[in-house]
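Posting for a labmate who doesn't have an account.
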Amino acid sequence: MNPLIEVDRIGKSYGSVVALREVSTVVNAGEVTCVLGDNGAGKSTLIKILAGVHQHDTGRLRLDGQDVRFASPREALDRGIATVHQDLAVVPLMSVWRNFFLGSEPTVGAGPLRRLDRRTGRETARRAIADMGIDLRDVEQPVGTLSGGERQCVAIARAVHFGAKVLILDEPTAALGVKQSGVVLRYLAQARDRGLGVVLITHNPHHAYPVGNRFLVLTRGASLGSFEKADITLAELTRQMAGGEELEALEHELRGVSG
């Protein structure tokens, strides 16, 4: 069976700046592919290519075994790739259910008599959010009253409801505390268990390792490797992310200075 997404030696440059260089990995249905790296590692560039914001210069991007080159985020979304960005595109004063449907609201009637179908919207959003195991008090409450973790979870439920095959989460736990991060990771795992291919972008290996099936480690636009979970421990993943050899050299240097 073909991977949902296959990234094959993809490269991207902005003028003379090389943002990505021959990066490869796969995203399978019912699995989580974690993309790890520090700031400037190339994570955002890779996500923008997968989400249709930018196009790759070299290499191949395949969706369901077919070569693709998305012209826009809408095209990627129409092909089943939903991206939940770190700065969630929500309207804080608008209700949870209106944000759930933002741009795709259910309507009744036709022509000039067409109007928003509030009852269907509320009930559909409530059911979709509850199906993900998210316990919200009231879908009429402003989305701005939700915690950061709850907002992320509503965005995940929205992507699942609208038929995403691949769910990309860009640093979903970056601004969250330990408990809220755990909540988001639990719902991410639920999306995986429903058969979606999930791409988790993070700089935190402790968040990635419990839910991940595959780990792509980036540094300065290049890949340090794409590892199956069975082939790498959390300690080694953390060491790879931290630039193990550089840290060891620094530690040796500091030991010499202090001695």
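Reply:
Got it, the structure tokens are right above this. The CA atoms of residues 2 and 167 lie 17 Å apart.
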